[in-house]
Amino acid sequence: MKSTELKRLKDALATLSADECLDIKKVLRERENQVVSSVVMKEITDGVDSCPHCGSKKIAKAGSKDGRKRFKCKNDKTNEDGSLVCGKSFNALTGTPLARLRQTEKHIEHAQCMVEKMTIRQVAKKLKIDIHTAFRWRHRFLESIQHMQPSVLTGVVEADETFFLRSYKGQRTGIPRPSKKRGMPGCTAGLGPDQVPVLVARDRSSGETLTAMLPSRKAKDIAPALLPRLSKDAVLCSDGASAYRVIGKKAGIEVKSTPAKKAAGIYHIQNVNAYDSRLKAWMFGFKGVASVYLQNYLGWHRLLDKTSLALPSKEFYSAALGK
Ligand SMILES: [Zn+2]
Fold it and tell me: How far is the centre of ligand 1, averaged over its atoms, from the C-alpha of 61 (Å)?
């Protein structure tokens, strides 16, 4: 835009009424999404350096299709019968969970909706897509994100389990008990089979947090979720559950136990408790999450709970692409 035009626009903006301001904000927001979207798409496209099918670095640009730049693999290796090993076409999204989703131009806006934790209905309305598409997009966007866990927890690491009511929401067959209306209490008292245990382990200095669904609270089920991401020299703090002592003993990791809610020097689990409260409050807004998708929601919350999301929609989108 020319500088004289920009000045005229600014002068016009200076005369807006309150209602007109709201209108203009909407237009600006849409434009911002478009701009960010094309910047992100360009970055991703510029970053393509090999074929996602065979890994060859010999690739060439091959025009565009549906607004996405295409590439062609130029790997010249041949099979025994003389046919090419690869030679396939691809775009920047090939090989990512978002590869087959259409309307790429709405992806960034969708990421923004997820940052704002909009419901499926709200997303469908805002992006003018149907409910089923909105549902599919949500879970496709979370496919990579649910696997993103901190690589290593070190120093003082707090660990505890939290629980979510087992839910068969949206499932019509194969439910092992009579259906239950939303808000009804669980059928079994306490921590029975109606509760899904989730491990929460937090590195106190970095704030990195691991959350994972567990088959049970037993040491044999906690260990495979925790140990691969726990530094050998970490000090593990727990509320005194024997499972952690068993795990620590086997893996040679120091374990400090404190009774729940009691602050005993530096070996407490208050950071995990605080994380758990934030997670529960965040989940509450969804009015019951189907247990088959709980892992996706845990990943979604982990990403948003990081305070470093400077450009949220862009970072969320990159994470969804697994980058
Ligand atoms: Zn190839």
Answer: 13
Q: What is the pTM of this model?
A: 0.82
pLDDT, averaged across the chain:
88
- In terms of CATH architecture, what is 156-169+191-289? 2-Layer Sandwich (3.30)
CA dist., res. 283 & res. 296, Å (int): 12
Structure tokens at 209: 């947090």
What's the whole-number mean pLDDT along residues 198-202? 96
Residue 41, phi-psi category: left (phi > 0), alpha (psi -120 to 50), beta (remainder): alpha
Q: Domain limits of the chain?
A: 23-145, 156-169+191-289
Mean pLDDT of 16-45: 86
Distance 147 CA to ligand 1 centre (A): 26
Q: What is the pLDDT of residues 303-321, one digit of tens each?
A: 999 866 676 888 899 899 9
More confident residue, 30 or 244: 244
Q: What's the CA-to-centroid distance between 98 and ligand 1, angstroms?
A: 19
